[in-house]
Amino acid sequence: MREALNQGLIDFLKASPTPFHATATMARRLEAAGYQRLDERESWNTVPGGRYYVTRNDSSIIAIRLGKHSPLLNGLRMVGAHTDSPCLRVKPQPELQRQGFFQLGVEVYGGALLAPWFDRDLSLAGRVTFRRDGKVESQLIDFRLPIAVVPNLAIHLNREANQGWAINAQTELPPVLAQVAGDERVDFRALLTEQLAREHGLNADVVLDYELSFYDTQSAAVIGLNGDFIAGARLDNLLSCYAGLQALLDAEGDESCVLVCTDHEEIGSSSACGADGPMLEQVLQRLIPEGDEYVRSIQRSLLVSADNAHGVHPNYAEKHDANHGPKLNAGPVIKVNSNQRYATNSETAGFFRHLCMAVEVPVQSFVVRSDMGCGSTIGPITASHLGVRTVDIGLPTFAMHSIRELAGSQDLAHLVKVLGAFYASSELP
């Protein structure tokens, strides 16, 4: 089972270079499992026992399995994660031609570690909006092949490189895509038109706009002398999206279950399709009668907010509180912060710990050092919007927000197992 889950994650990461592709990949798996797509612009006719999913902006998705028991009696079992990761996004007018090279101007999305982006084989993917036969359409594209690189400056020309230097995102990050001769000019939108035809057989009149990101073409892999690790891009937080989806598809039971994977967490979640937006609340209000019954159902519900945790790094162990250094391959981590950067409380932490014990999954705790700032995630945001009890958890990883992150190869199976137990639980605290 562990090997199959790890390979499934590797395949999922390869198919999901952007939040748009991750959402489309999850939607295909849900449809294959009998889930029906609901259109937010139309009226819904849902029934007990039904399986449904909703997308917004093509980059956020909510899957719902309505149970035989009303949420008014036993609440909703919700798992939350996010589809986005730090990356380099292409600017609206990106063409740069300098010293005979064609480059694209980029903007840094989220809190990316920039140094690892140098000297990687990069490709480009995302959503393109275009006009065809007088109508405006959108389509996902993925060049797949390595078409770009951000070359480093040689140590001979930057003797201070190993003493640390501030990377200038404006001048040092534009990837190189090609050499150009003389006065030859490259039209990026024309390249996208060609890609639409090549990948989808679409003859666009004109590309109107796009949301495109560079990504590393190196596949995720199980690595290490004993295969102890999974290395790959976008583990934060597609690892949790995959685990939540797998648990939902595998789980059995009579209760109502929800998986919510939203975009824009890395930049604060404030968008129409982010956790700080109205999407989840609006979807739930259409499934549960408003007013008294809605509030009562939410108060009987629980959200497991799943986002990666900082594993204790052997080279930087001093960055952790000595009693709260989560280890790779030692199970999911309960994340606690008294200032509500995480939404965990003793009741929700206790219930999650109880679930782990019941299915024999190891569990750990993380509290940031008292002299360091603490990151956050969708847990506190969703809890404050819905008023739902929440526990923030995640799998320990290294190199969070790097172009290539590292997790334990045993931990995915641990997380899927405990999330499956959560979805199947007959009682919530």
Structure keywords:
single chain, 429 residues, Aminopeptidase, 2 domains, 9-stranded mixed β-sheet, globular, metallopeptidase activity
Provide a concise account of the structure shown.
The chain has 429 residues and is an alpha/beta fold.
Oligomer: single chain
Distance between the termini: 30 Å
Largest sheet, spatial ordering of strands: 1-2-3-13-4-14-18-16-17
**Globular, elongated, flat, extended or rod-shaped: what is the shape?**
globular
- As for the number of domains, it is 2
CATH class of the largest domain: Alpha Beta
What do we call the CATH homologous superfamily of the largest domain?
Zn peptidases
Please state the average pLDDT score: 95
Give the uncertain stretches in residue-range form. Answer: none
Largest beta sheet, briefly?
9 strands, mixed
Protein name: Probable M18 family aminopeptidase 2
GO cellular component, one term: cytoplasm
Pfam families: Peptidase_M18
Family: Belongs to the peptidase M18 family.
